[in-house]
Amino acid sequence: MTISGQELNSRPVATNTEILEAAPGLAVVQHSGSGKANQYYLRGYNLDHGTDLAIFWDDVPINLPTNAHGQGYADLNFLIPETLAGMEVRKGPYFADVGDFANAGDLHLFLRDSIPQNIVSATVGSFGYDRFLTLGSTKLGGGSLLYAGEFQTYDGPSVTGEDVRKFSGLVRYSQGTATNGFSATAMGYTNNWNSTDQVALRAITTGQIGQFGEIDPSDGGDTSRFMVSTRFAQSDDLGLWKANAYFSKYTLNLWNNFTWFTTDPMNGDQFHQHDDRIYGGAGVSRTINSTLFGRPTETLFGVQTRYDDIDVASATPRSDFFWRTRSSTMSARATSASMRRTRRAGPIGSGPPPVGAVTISGRR
C-alpha cells in the first residue's frame, strides 16, 4: 500500500520518526536518548533497531549491516517529515528486491520535488523542546530545486537533560516525474545527546535516585550521516526502466551502561560502541507489464550492488581492546585510550514528557 505525503503530514506526531506509524501495525518507539535509532514493532514482532525491517529513503538503503550496536541498525532521526511525498509499505518476507532485512516488511520513503509555498516555522515546547524549520523550492534550469533545513533541541524531564542538538538538511534537484525523469539529492545530518536509559526499580524505591534520575549520567552518543544519491526512470509501451546510485558517509558513537557497577565497582560497566563507515551502491531494474489469464501482471528484472567499508569498535573503561572489522576482515589491536564519557549534568525536571507545543509559522 502507498500512503500520500499529505496523509503523512496530517498526522499529529511528537517526534519526526513517529510519522512512520502511518503504516498499519507498525509501532515506532525510542529508548536511550533521542539520537539513537528507533525500535520498531511490526505484526507483533520486535524488530529491534531495524534488523527485520528494510527501510529505504529515496531508494537509498538505511539499514546498516555489521553495525556497532546491532545488525540492520536503521537510524531515521535525520528525517524531515515535511519533505516526504509518500511512503510505500509492504509486509512479509516475499520481496527479493529489498534484501535480507525485510523479514517482517519494508518501507520506501519518497521525497517531494517541490512545494507550492515556501515554509519557515519555529516550534517551542516544554522541557527545552525547540524546532526550527525552513523548506522551499524554486524553478531552475527546466527542473525544480528543493531545499530544507531543520535544527532541533530537547532536554526532557530527566535529572540529566538529554541536551539534544540535532541538525538535518537536504538539497534536491529534479526534472520530470517519478516514472519519467531524474533527480539528484544531497543531505547532511548531525546529532548528539545524553541517554535516558532504564534503571533498577530498587534504586527508585529505596530512594537512591528519583523517578527521573539515572545511575550513570555519562551515557549518551553522537552520530552523523552525509549522503548523495541520484535516480533515473523512463517509461515506454512495455513498462519501466529505473536506475539509481548512492554514496554515504556515516559515524556513530554510543556510550551504554546496562549493569552499572556490577562487573567493575571501581570504574563502572559502561562500554563504548563506535561505527565509522562509507558505503555506496547502485541498481538497475526493468519492469514489464503484461497479463496472465486476463489479469494485469508486472514482471521485474534487476541487479543491485552495494559495498560497505566498515570500521567498528567496542571497548570498556577497564578493557584496552578495540575489535574492528574493515572490509569484512576481523582484527584486534591494543590501545590505551580511555573510553569513559564525560557529560555535564542538566537541571532537574519533573512530570511526563511534553504532549503539546506552540508553533509559529510563516509562509511566502
Q: What's the SSE blueprint?
A:
Elements: E1 2-4, H1 5-9, E2 26-29, E3 39-42, E4 45-46, E5 53-57, E6 60-61, E7 84-91, E8 105-111, E9 119-125, E10 130-140, E11 143-154, E12 164-176, E13 181-194, H2 201-205, E14 220-235, E15 239-256, E16 271-292, E17 295-315, E18 321-326, E19 329-334, E20 357-363
Parallel strand pairs: 5-8
Antiparallel strand pairs: 1-7, 2-3, 3-4, 5-6, 7-8, 9-10, 9-20, 10-11, 11-12, 12-13, 13-14, 14-15, 15-16, 16-17, 18-19
What is this structure, in a nutshell?
The chain is mainly β. It has 2 helices and 20 strands.
Q: What does this molecule look like?
A:
A hairpin with a 2-residue loop joins strand 18 and strand 19 (329-334). Strands 17-16-15-14-13-12-11-10-9-20 form a 10-stranded antiparallel beta sheet, with no helix packed on it. A 5-stranded mixed beta sheet has the order 1-7-8-5-6. Helices cover 3% and strands 52% of the residues. With 364 residues, the chain is mostly beta strands. The chain has helices at 5-9, 201-205, and strands at 2-4, 26-29, 39-42, 45-46, 53-57, 60-61, 84-91, 105-111, 119-125, 130-140, 143-154, 164-176, 181-194, 220-235, 239-256, 271-292, 295-315, 321-326, 329-334, 357-363. It is globular and about 70 Å long. The chain has one domain (2-363).
